[in-house]
Amino acid sequence: METQQALYQYAVRLGDNSLIMAQRLAEWCSNGPILEEDLALTNAALDYLGEAENYYNYALSLEPDGRTADDLAYLRNERQYYNCLLAEQPNGDYAQTMVKLALFSAYLKLLYDALSQSTDTNLSALASKSLKEVKYHFRHSSEWMIRFGHGTEESKSRAQQAIYELWRFTSDMFETTAADATLKGIVPDPASIQSEWNSVINDLLSRCGLKKPEDPYQVKGGYQAKHTEHLGHILCELQFLQRAYPGAKW
Amino acid sequence: MEQDNQLPLWEVFIQKNNGLPFKHEGSIHASDAAMALQNARDIYTRRGEGRTIWVVPSSAIAATTVEDEAEFFDPSDDKIYRHPTFYVMPEGAKQI
What we know:
The complex is a heterodimer of chains A (about 250) and B (about 100). By secondary structure, chain A is mostly helical. Helices cover about 65% and strands about 0% of the residues of chain A. The longest helix of chain A is centred in the middle third of the chain and has 29 residues, at about 120-150. With about 100 residues, chain B is α+β, with helices and mostly antiparallel strands. Chain B has one domain: Ubiquitin-like (UB roll). Chain B has helices at about 35-45, 70-75; strands spanning about 10-15, 25-30, 50-55. In chain B, strands 2-1-3 form a three-stranded antiparallel β-sheet, with helices on one face. The chains are: A mainly alpha (about 250), B alpha+beta (about 100). Chains A and B meet through helix 2 and helix 6 of A and helix 1 of B.
């Protein structure tokens, strides 16, 4: 694989991770448990949407063929999205949303931190910009996890249940693709990010008094565009307007 | 009024730039100080409004009431000599 093509795929994958997470978090708009959290999550959703646009635009600058970031976001089919499986999992209750955001933003925090040192100056600039945002997402979601863990019996059991539910989608974030292999030296090694992530999450779980499941089973395939049943439903909502009224603008 | 089931109330003060006074912006709900700072950030600084945030439990604020008004404030209404308008200010002192 050529470097240019690998960079395109890598940037689209970063964009897809952010876009699908943005769409999921946006589902909380007007449904938050309290107004403060409603705004916190829609803020985070908009952060991810902005990141997605930046990564798509960078990808398109590598293969300029007249398509726009909107085309990438709205006009691809399910098997053309390269987001990790964790991002597309349902929000569930608030504990599940917070656990999901913590697992996801801890990954992006480490990834962007490493990418900000990349020799590809565009990637490093975009990663540095996104890093500040995902650091805050991790702070907010991990603080909630600590409070759930040390709150009531119910809050603790819900947070624990969320970890049991989502854990099997975590290794998928660190899968090595052909693009990763081609970009060796330009982008961080997924395995090294995974080992850092493990220590961050172990530390967080012990602060929360929560534990990982004993079952080591893992579902993988997001970066190969093989998704769980949830992505199609997300796309129905995300793409409806552009599919029903092609080219609609406001 | 229905019982407030949200979370404890905090008053939010934001400083726009170094050296400027903290200004009361409004209030938010939060379980504790760390979360109160985050909620204040999410609600009141989304458009670059501030550099520093203070949060104070609303219950920690003592306030005067309408009944206090006459005793507290009326006596100062007719004492114009308390305003420093009778002095000649040096030209250079623009900020006083």
